[in-house]
Amino acid sequence: MSDHPASMDSHPDGKIILVVDDEFDVLSAYTMLFEFRGFRVRTASNGAEALAAARRELPDIVVSDYMMPVMNGADLCVAWRDDPSLRAIPFILASAGILPRDLLPPYDIFFRKPVPFDTLLATIQQLLARRG
């Protein structure tokens, strides 16, 4: 998990983003990019780790990969919505191998990978603004 303070382009509220992906390079890149924008970032390498992390410290939003070991993104999303303390937190799901028409979980937004960072960031900001 990453707890480094942001340096430039600070997001005024220091919102917490939980990034869930089994690829270390993806976690590292997202951590660096989000922290640069002033977010606090927490990471997990599968859905089970993500649930545990979210229950320790509630994130403001989650960005999850679909294909992961232990618990995939679809199962994480279902468990997320079943948990009263997590269900209102926006959930972004992304996949290179699955199409949104193939998924039934109640995610807020689905992206086909690779997701341009500016698109992802704009979507995160919109979802957070809706939440208040």
How would you summarize this macromolecular structure in one to three sentences?
The chain is α/β, with parallel strands linked by helices and 132 residues long.
Quickly list its features.
Rossmann fold, alpha/beta, 132 residues, 5 strands, disordered N terminus, five-stranded parallel sheet
Verbal overview:
- The chain is an alpha/beta fold and 132 residues long.
- It is built from four helices and five strands.
- A five-stranded parallel sheet has the order 2-1-3-4-5, with helices on both faces.
- Helix 3 links the parallel strand 3 and strand 4 (91-95).
- The protein starts with 15 loop residues before the first strand and ends with a helix.
- Residues 1-12 have low confidence and may be disordered.
Strand adjacency order, main sheet: 2-1-3-4-5
Question: What do we call the CATH homologous superfamily?
Answer: Response regulator
Percent of residues in helices comes to 25-40%
Q: Helix- and strand-based class?
A: alpha/beta
**Radius of gyration over all CA atoms, rounded:** 13 Å
Strand content: 15-25%
pLDDT averaged residue by residue? 87
Kindly identify the CATH topology: Rossmann fold
Shape: globular
- The counted number of beta strands is 5
The CATH architecture: 3-Layer(aba) Sandwich
Unreliable residue runs: 1-12
**What is the rounded distance between the termini?**
26 Å
What is the element string, with H for helices and E for strands?
EHEHEHEEH
CATH class: Alpha Beta
Given the structure, what is the number of helices?
A: 4
Largest sheet data: 5 strands, parallel
* Count of discrete domains: 1
